[in-house]
Amino acid sequence: MSILTDFREKSFLDKISILNEVATAKDPLELEELLELFLNPVGDTSVDYMVVTALNGVLSVDEQKTVDLLEQGEGKLRTLCIRVCGEFQFKSAVPVLLRMAEENSDPDFLFEVLTSLSKIGGAEALDLFRSNINNEDDLIVVMSIEMLGELKDKESVPALKGFVERNNEDGNYEVCDLTTWKAVECLAAIGTDEALDFIVANLHHRNPTVRRVVTDCLTVLGGAAVPYLTKVISPGSDKDDMILAANVLGFVGDKAGLDVLMDAIEKEYSTDSSVKYAIYEAIGRIGTMKGVISLIDGLDDDDDLIAVAVMTGLDGLVNPGVNKKLVEIIGAGGSKAGKILRAIVTAKAVNVFHGLYGEGKIGRFLMNAIVASKDAEVHEAFRAKLVEIGGEGAEADISRLPEAVEAVGKRALAVDDSKSMLALYRSILTSAGYNPTVAENGQDAYSYIEMNEVFDVIITDMNMPVMDGMEFVSKLRQTDDYADIPVIMVTTESEYSQQELARKTGVNDFITKPFTADQLKAKIAEYVS
């Protein structure tokens, strides 16, 4: 006799206990009683929920019965069977599910069927997913696109490209819809030459969110993306494309990408300072000894920002050869020596400092530059290194460093995914009398807003991973008490439409890389007295 006999007359606790036992035992003999309770609920939410759980358990061990009920059932029983077939990957249900999808156009029902088929997997449903990427229901479209990527369907590439192209047209590019986002991810998953060439061609898509998704997808692809990015790091390529491609190569960190970047420097693919900065920073990110030659060559550039990027990279690659070259350059004196000393301090390149500290007057010059800095974080970083070095000379130099004091005065938030840019912002802002806070992306920056931190000015990059500058500013402007904080966007973007889009999100003004410290200070002074 079934333990569910006279179930409706039992107490609440007995009902729950019995259903738990049925769900655990998964005895097919209890199926008929469970079906009766499912189709005619007892009216108690907790008990009825447990009936569904027990029925799921019993059906999970009987594929044939579940498929039979799927064909015969209606309404909520059919929906439950659809879900069970998907959850437990019942392959024999596929023909039935496909037929149901063809016979029923209701979007909710179709979504249930597609969800089940996506969990079961296999190429049998490929035509169904292809036919639904233009469905009027966005959830169905997204589900279908995701499955085309999982099944690596080459035939869908042209249609997927269409989503991205339409989102780049006038009137469409201001918002990245979910279907475009998923189309980019799907193309990356398919991974054909046509798909990856197209993704790289959209590195500088007009929508910043699409750009971020493209960057993320290429970074996840890793070394497989390098041959396609190489086509962009070439003479005559668009400046913005080269910058974004160099950034991705730096994130990927593949040695083949390093060769491409070093060629770009050696053969002078571009004379634009922003492009060269992006390439030097990417070489430093990859962080292999092979890149040291290119980084050392970067010290010949007049741009202070490039010097900071170079020093940030060299700090992880210090060796006797690097030390010897730096001693030679600094020892020659002149403006180049001063630029390098400033870059070491700004980048907090403590390993470079360690290598040069014992070099007589060069070590003295470095200590003078460190003491002159107004940045408390700089003092703390080099103080820690001096403690590590030890000795009477180090102790004397530690005593020269200002003691940490509680920050007072105006506050600034700087947001950028580049460590060398953040280091430069700290240097400029502290020299201008600001207490700087830095974040590597919009999400990290917004966490300060959520903690009700108050800033007099915000400086943000446009293109960043995780959350780009425009999304960050848009969220900022929708947050109480942050509608009027001045926001200056720092960018390399040369396209006017991007500045217009940024202004719509709430950006007050722009400054274009490369810029000098005085230019940034002047721009801030326009908004903060």
Explain what you see.
By secondary structure, this protein is mostly helical. It has 30 helices and five strands. A five-stranded parallel sheet has the order 2-1-3-4-5, sandwiched between helices. Strand 3, helix 28 (469-477) and strand 4 form a beta-alpha-beta unit. Helix 1 (12-25) runs parallel beside helix 3 (45-60) and helix 19 packs across helix 21 (334-346). The longest helix is centred in the first third of the chain and has 16 residues, at 45-60. The chain is elongated and about 95 Å long. The relative contact order is 0.05. The model has no long low-confidence stretch (mean pLDDT 92).
Tell me the distance between the termini: 86 Å
The main β sheet shows up as: 5 strands, parallel
Instruction: Indicate the percent of residues in helices.
Output: 55-70%
**Quick one: how many beta strands?**
5
Q: What is the residue-averaged pLDDT?
A: 92
Structural category: mainly alpha
Annotation field: number of helices: 30
Relative strand content? under 5%
Rg (C-alpha, Å): 31 Å
Oligomer: single chain
Contiguous runs where pLDDT drops below 50 for at least 5 residues: none
Specify the overall morphology: elongated
Strand order within the widest beta sheet:
2-1-3-4-5
